[in-house]
Specification:
Chain lengths: 254, 224
């Protein structure tokens, strides 16, 4: 089987295989280099079980949140069908439906914009602080505050609804929003007036944010204006262990 | 000879390819970003997730009990007014539509503090479990921002002046502990804004007003 014809067939085959393999190799090397990024990778032994534990807990959290949203919607449905003196029940139900929307317990959709923040890809010059080149909780909080000031009426960060009790914290190079772990890209979705974007960019504080974080450190700040922005419902706890409601009309003496 | 060397190079390339593929797959998002964290940070994430999941389980249990009560009341043909009213009060109090009272802390701020630093304090209070917060007597709700440069901060269009109070309802020791811990927000602000004075006092009973904002969306619609 060493005829000339056979050799013509065999050589191209391995050349082709080699060619494809080298091509794949090139892609992989490029992908690998890209995914290395500016982040530090740790290699200590104790990390693997911790990562697994955190992933397990995160999965539990996602499941719990889904259950809570579903239970709340069940309650709303049962309440809507509630018996009782029809007028009073209907009135209460209307108030409840409005309160749930106002509290962020119902997902909203509408006009608005999505701001996206990503870590800088600039090399960190010697003497500079590497954390300045990473999106911080403060950056995301600033974006949220500026969007509120520009007229946003509902905001979520990577799908976590921003409520009166939402804290946004740094954890390593990533964030906790409503105590849920979030990594970049951070997408701040805001529903608001149709001119939310021009209003935002007209704010001197936003321009300063672009200069201080975007231009100075290369934090990547981008925006999108999808036709319909969705802001999910708050899926966390309604913590009122110490606070008591003071129904309107009651005296509020300190 | 030529065939053997070609086989060798293919084998070699395949080997490198395999190694790179494995490395690549491993570095591609197995932990959803958790891979980049140190052991200490991971311990914090795990601790935080544990606490949070415990809270969510309590919330779920409450909601499950509520569903059961509602279903039973309905089966008995009873009126659900009581349940509806308590639900309404709870949601309105939490969102800021109703005034609330309870124990907590009062934080007196004196000096030219910028709005962003006030927001840092509010974020810290929320993280410490504050259930309701007011700044300068104005209830902080979703959308409330304390803005402005040092000495000219305002909230909801009301200037706060040189001295103002942040009131937060919650567990007083937790709130105080979180604000005053070493390296905490108060320590950080004292280091960066030495001219600003911060005094935190635990209080047995605070009364916070309802918000004057309309929380009903004008642009967004419920997504059913």
């Amino acid at each position: 089987m060493t005829s000339i014809g056979a050799r013509f067939r065999t050589i191209p085959t391995w050349q082709l295989t080699l060619g494809i393999a080298l091509l794949a190799l090139g892609f992989l090397i490029a992908a690998q280099l890209q995914s290395e990024g500016p982040r530090v990778t740790y290699t200590s032994q104790e990390r693997a079980p911790l990562v697994a534990t955190a992933q397990g807990l995160q999965a539990q959290q996602d499941a719990l949140k889904a259950e809570i949203v579903s239970l709340r919607s069940q309650i709303a449905t049962i309440e809507q069908q509630g018996k009782g003196s029809a007028d009073q029940v209907r009135q209460l139900n209307d108030q409840l439906a409005a309160a749930r929307v106002a509290a962020g317990l119902i997902a909203l959709h509408g006009p608005g914009l999505v701001l996206q923040l990503q870590d800088s890809t600039n090399p960190v010059p010697p003497g500079d602080n590497a954390t300045d080149y990473v999106v911080s909780a403060k950056d995301v909080r600033t974006a949220v505050e500026l969007l509120w000031l520009a007229g946003a009426e509902a905001i979520a960060v990577n799908g976590e609804r921003v409520t009166a009790s939402t804290a946004i914290l740094d954890i390593g190079g990533s964030l906790l929003v409503n105590s849920a772990y979030q990594s970049q890209p951070y997408q701040v979705s805001a529903i608001g007036p149709a001119d939310l974007y021009p209003r935002l960019t007209a704010e001197p504080a936003f321009q300063q944010f672009l200069r201080d974080r975007g231009e100075r450190f290369g934090i990547r700040i981008a925006f999108a204006q999808p036709p319909d922005v969705v802001v999910p419902a708050y899926a966390g706890t309604i913590n009122l262990r110490n606070a008591r409601a003071v129904p309107s009309g009651s005296p509020t003496t300190p | 000879m030529r065939r053997r060397s070609s086989q060798l190079s293919i084998a070699l390339v395949a080997l490198i390819l395999g190694v790179l593929l494995v490395v690549q797959l491993r570095s591609q998002n197995p932990g959803g970003g958790l891979e980049g964290l140190s052991a200490q940070e991971l311990t914090d994430v795990v601790g935080n997730l544990n606490t949070r999941n415990e809270q969510l389980r309590t919330e779920r249990a409450q909601l499950q009990a509520e569903v059961q009560q509602l279903a039973e009341a309905e089966a008995r043909g009873e009126n659900s007014v009581g349940q509806l009213q308590s639900d309404l009060l709870r949601i309105q109090a939490w969102s800021g539509l109703l005034a609330v009272s309870g124990p907590g802390v009062r934080l007196t701020v004196t000096g030219p503090i910028p709005g962003l630093a006030v927001e840092d304090l509010l974020n810290e209070l929320r993280n410490a479990g504050a259930e309701a917060v007011s700044v300068g007597g104005i209830r902080v709700v979703a959308g409330t921002v304390v803005a402005g440069s040092g000495g000219a901060v305002s909230v909801e269009g009301t200037p706060l002046g040189g001295t103002f109070e942040i009131a937060a309802i919650g567990n007083p020791p937790s709130l105080t502990g979180s604000l005053t811990r070493a390296g905490g927000m108060m320590a950080q602000l004292r280091a960066t804004l030495p001219e600003v004075e911060l005094v935190v006092t635990p209080v047995d009973r605070l009364a916070l007003p309802a918000t004057t904002r309309t929380l009903t969306p004008a642009h967004g619609a419920p997504r059913l």
